[in-house]
Design a protein that fits this description.
The chain is α+β, with helices and mostly antiparallel strands. It has 6 helices and 16 strands. The chain has helices at 2-21, 28-74, 85-92, 96-99, 105-118, 289-292; strands spanning 119-123, 138-142, 168-172, 180-187, 192-196, 199-202, 205-206, 208-217, 222-231, 234-240, 260-263, 266-270, 275-279, 295-296, 300-309, 318-319. The active site is at 128, 183.
């Protein structure tokens, strides 16, 4: 068992190391699921096989010690050195290969349940959601808001709350599903979304917005046009770079691309069933649905709702819309 456990642990370390060094494209959800299953098997083996064996060995030692004490007493020997506490502790001690597997199972299973079904932490790596989210924000994502899903397979078990325009959503990036993205939901199935000359229209109705004082983005040391936009039922802030053209360059081929019409003014898209149109709040610095298309329902990870830490700015902690 020691050799087998060494191989299992080496495989996990090798996978994580290769992922970290960029040799393979890792999948943390799969890694966590495998760790939960493997440590769970060891935990069951420890609970129902290895621990009873060690306890039986300790019981045999106690019985042998008692017999030896009884025999020496009958022989009239009063001073009896029968301190077997250290030997008993060694018999009951969990070996290293169980300590590193069964011993970790309770922690791993708690992390697995929390991350897979309740809340998952993410770090904001870019400025595409400024001013709502800043680079370095550590956020929490509600994994059950849109319905509980099986980890790895991502099969929906419950319906949950329907996706709403204006939600800040984490999803698997359609061109590269192993990578998580965060954007704001702009269009839901059936919507016609038009972003022309940096003005947003949904189903033929211009989305109301009001101007705010210019926004200073410390990440690039520049001022930008600042607006408060009122998507149906939800208000949020965004920034616009007037130096960028309305034209959308470098678009990809993607499913349902025929539902989009591109021009020098921007883009108009009809959102297909079971898909969503996403945009960043940093409108001119966001790689979003305008470039790579729609997000299928199967790619949804959860709803982002809370900044739990930003080590560069503790005032960032709190809920957001």
């Amino acid at each position: 068992m020691q050799f087998l456990t060494s191989l299992v642990l080496a495989a996990f370390v090798g996978y994580a190391g290769s992922w970290y060094l960029g040799y393979i494209e890792g999948n943390f959800a799969l890694l966590l699921l495998l760790a939960t299953v493997v440590t769970g098997i060891y935990w069951l083996a420890e609970r129902f096989y290895f621990l009873p064996q060690r306890e039986a060995a300790a019981a045999r030692l106690d019985e042998a010690t008692a017999q030896r004490r009884s025999e020496l007493t009958r022989m009239g020997i009063e001073k009896i050195d029968t301190d077997t506490a250290e030997a008993r502790d060694k018999l009951l001690m969990q070996p290293w290969w169980l300590d590193w597997t069964a011993g970790l199972f309770p922690v791993i299973v708690v992390v697995f349940i929390l991350r897979s079904f309740l809340f998952e932490p993410f770090k904001i790596p870019s400025g595409s959601m400024i001013p709502t989210l800043q680079i370095g924000d550590l956020i929490l994502v509600n994994k059950f808001h849109y319905g509980v899903r099986l980890p790895v397979a991502n099969i929906k078990l419950t319906e949950g709350t329907p996706v709403q325009r204006g939600d800040v959503m984490v999803f698997r990036f359609p061109p590269r599903p192993s990578q998580d993205y965060i954007k704001r939901v702009i269009g839901i199935p059936g919507d016609e979304v038009a972003y022309l000359n940096k003005k947003l229209t949904i189903n033929g109705q211009p989305v109301a917005s009001e101007s705010l004082p210019d926004y200073f983005d410390e990440s690039v040391m520049r001022y930008f046009k600042h607006q408060r936009e009122n998507l149906p039922g939800k208000t949020h802030n965004l920034i616009i770079d007037n130096d960028r053209p309305a034209f959308i360059p470098g678009t990809d081929e993607f499913p349902f691309r025929d539902q989009c019409r591109y021009s020098v003014e921007g883009v108009v898209c009809k959102v297909p069933a079971g898909h969503y149109f996403m945009m960043g709040d940093n409108r001119d610095n966001s790689l979003d649905s305008r470039y790579w298309g729609f997000v299928p329902d199967a790619n949804i990870v959860g709803k982002a709702f809370f900044v739990w830490m930003n080590f560069g700015n503790l005032k960032r902690i709190g809920a957001f819309d």
